[in-house]
Amino acid sequence: MSDGPLIVQSDKTLLLDIDHILSDECRRAIAAFAELEKSPEHIHTYRLTPLGLWNARAAGHDAEQVIDVLLKYSRFAVPHSLLVDIAETMSRYGRLRLEAHPVHGLILVSNDPAVLKEVTRGKKVAPMLGLQLDEETIVVHPGQRGFLKQALLKLGWPAEDFAGYVDGEHHEIALRQDGWQIRKYQELAAEGFWHGGSGVVVLPCGAGKTIVGAAAMAHAKATTLILVTNTVAARQWRDELLRRTDLNEDDIGEYSGSKKEIRPVTIATYQVMTTKKKGVYAHLDLFDAIDWGLIIYDEVHLLPAPIFRFTADIQSRRRLGLTATLVREDGMEGEVFSLIGPKRFDVPWKEIEAQGYIAPADCVEVRVTLTDAERLNYATAEQEDRYKFCATTQTKKAVAIALAKQHANDQVLVIGQYLEQLDELGAALGVPVIKGATPIKEREVLFAQFRSGELKCLVVSKVANFSIDLPEASIAIQVSGTFGSRQEEAQRLGRVLRPKADGRGARFYSLVARDTIDQDFAQNRQRFLAEQGYAYRIIDADEVLNKN
């Protein structure tokens, strides 16, 4: 027993003393398998979940390593029952295996006949299974590979998939490293994915996830389908692939609302893939249009539910998910785990920052007080209208304008959720507003002007949350958001984390209305970043306003 920073409890919660000298070291060690639940000032609460432990197991951590971490950092004796539970939970991963049989095709195998017997009795599992060959082997109906993995995960027996992958149509792809070099962690991420066969790579925003995708394509050397969040992201992917690989323009097609090109490397948007015509998903045949060797899912934490259903049908294709955070607000992390694959590579944000690959960031929460009239209106507003009311208070507008003026020499992004609020801010600051209705060409021109420094300030809606590369943006001012979304907060901080040419740090302001639901949401939004080691300092709006 040592004077460590961690208190491990039998209810699977871990309490981390933030003021302890070893807290950062401990945080990095437990991040591989524990999920942050609460992060007030002094004690952060983490929880051990089966999915977190299975992800750790898939990423190469065994139960012994997890237990060693807990014993090393724990302040008191670790409950024995918990250690046993961790070992047993982690041993469940891989007890069932999907394999390819030369005669019978897809089979489910287990060295533990009792487990096989248990899962075959599951109402949802039984229809997916065929002939039992022996007490350790049972045939799986073709086409049920993904659905079976989903069902087994829900039963608490996640299957490891060794059934292999089709190579897909060959297409020569190689990295072209002239004037740049792939970073060590990018190389390890691509190799971790390739050897695992399918799965998710988690890297901070600005750490070069596109290059990991390109390196995976160079491993596969096959036709590739890349799914992205929007058309701007599709074009950024295209430009990056042309710059980093030996692909030429004719090799890359765009499949979006405006273009329908199918090429050896096709970049499609989630929107077009989930578009329905007369109740039918009209573009799903894209999945079968070419014999794909690799499918890449950009921002996999945003994967729409219909895409999961399509992904269940294409388990024989290699699948790579890229994201900054595996956090989903809809609780569908299990679907990502079973259908895209488990976490194959993860690196803490602060570690990448220490290596100089992302900019250091100062996170500031600016507390805004509602006027008496606003407080009264807030108190009498309907429950569903309350967040919008306090998130768009006029006081926030004054603070956002004051902050933008204080940073007039920096590249500033003002980000928000509500369009009327953004239009007002754009008009007050005299700068363009980018939102969903802004045509793609206009967006690209404005982003290019911002990158070159011609534009110093941009007001953006949530269309800029994802996959937008603005390397010189150093100040972000968040005025409103999608309720308590942790992944949105991470994405928005990510807009300013790209390393700056002059080595400057970044600053992220989050404007929060005091004593309202906005404050509760802000706490939840900050949880993921707290886990990554970003502490928010809180200042009062008057400090900002009095500076001007």
- CATH architecture group name of the largest domain: 3-Layer(aba) Sandwich
Q: Could you say how many structural domains there are in total?
A: 4
- Oligomeric category: single chain
As a whole number of angstroms, the C-alpha radius of gyration is 24 Å
Fraction of residues in helices? 25-40%
Number of strands: 25
Provide the low-confidence segments as ranges: none
CATH names the topology of the largest domain as Rossmann fold
Shape: globular
CATH 4th-level superfamily of the largest domain: P-loop containing nucleotide triphosphate hydrolases
Main sheet record: 7 strands, parallel
| Mean pLDDT figure | 90
Q: How many individual helices?
A: 23
Which secondary-structure class do the elements indicate? alpha/beta
Distance between the termini: 54 Å
Spatial sequence of strands, sheet with the most strands: 12-13-11-16-17-10-18
CATH top level of the largest domain is Alpha Beta
What does this structure look like?
- The strands form five sheets. A seven-stranded parallel β-sheet has the order 12-13-11-16-17-10-18, sandwiched between helices. It has a seven-stranded parallel β-sheet with strand order 21-22-20-23-24-19-25, with helices on both faces. A five-stranded mixed β-sheet has the order 7-8-6-5-9.
- The chain contains 23 helices and 25 strands.
- The mean pLDDT is 90.
- The chain folds into four domains: 6-92, no CATH class; 96-161; 184-347, Rossmann fold, CATH 3.40.50.300; 356-545, Rossmann fold (3-Layer(aba) Sandwich), CATH 3.40.50.300.
- Helix 2 packs across helix 4 (80-92), helix 3 (63-73) runs antiparallel to helix 4 (80-92) and helix 17 packs across helix 18 (419-429).
- It is an alpha/beta fold and 548 residues long.
